[in-house]
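Can't paste images in this forum, so I'm doing it all in text. The chain is below; anyone willing to post the predicted structure tokens underneath?
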Amino acid sequence: MKAFLKAGVLTQEHIRRDTTTGTPQGGILSPLLANVALCALDERFMGDWEAMMATRVDRARRRHHGLVTYRLVRYADDFLGFRIRRDRKRGTNERFVYTYPAKKALASIKAKVRAITRQGTNHPLSSLLRQLNLVLRGWTTHFRHAVSSATFGYLHQFTWVRVVRRLRRKHPRANWRQLRRRYLRTGWWPEQDGVMLFDPARVAVTRYRFRGASIPSPWEWAMD
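Text version of the structure:
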């Protein structure tokens, strides 16, 4: 946050002006700042939760007496394409907030894969793979800091099926041995003319690491 606030603004004359407070209207930092300011509200509701509704028995007792039970959920609405939820950490009883690729985002990339693989069969496979690689590499790069391993694995299988179905349409009389010898030589993975299909399942998923004040400014070249 400190790095964002001190990043400055770029004028029409391409001169960088340092700023000490505030953020531009509609900037990507505004929802984060709002959430930080609302942390006090979290603390109040969390105190009530731990005192009166921390266990299933406590919540059942409140409902029996006609009292409400609730849990405060708050997040920044600029996490584009992500689904945010509180889940139990595997192997423990602790619960943490996790981000997942949203169902709408997955549906979007699937629609793009379908559109590309529905193209006419006159195009060579290598051309099709180049188009798929662009969209798959960009999508997985965007979501690689979320809990995305299962989603990437699903996308791996979905894309393979779409490409193979297109090959079957292109060569309706070819058997599996012929298709594999021509297009699926490397572990049944599509390849032609040195172009191999990008594999989403091989993308390493890493949690975002705080970089503090080390976020580079894109305007270092500008003169004050």
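The radius of gyration is 25 Å. Helices lie at 2-5, 30-37, 39-52, 56-64, 103-117, 125-143, 149-170, 176-183.
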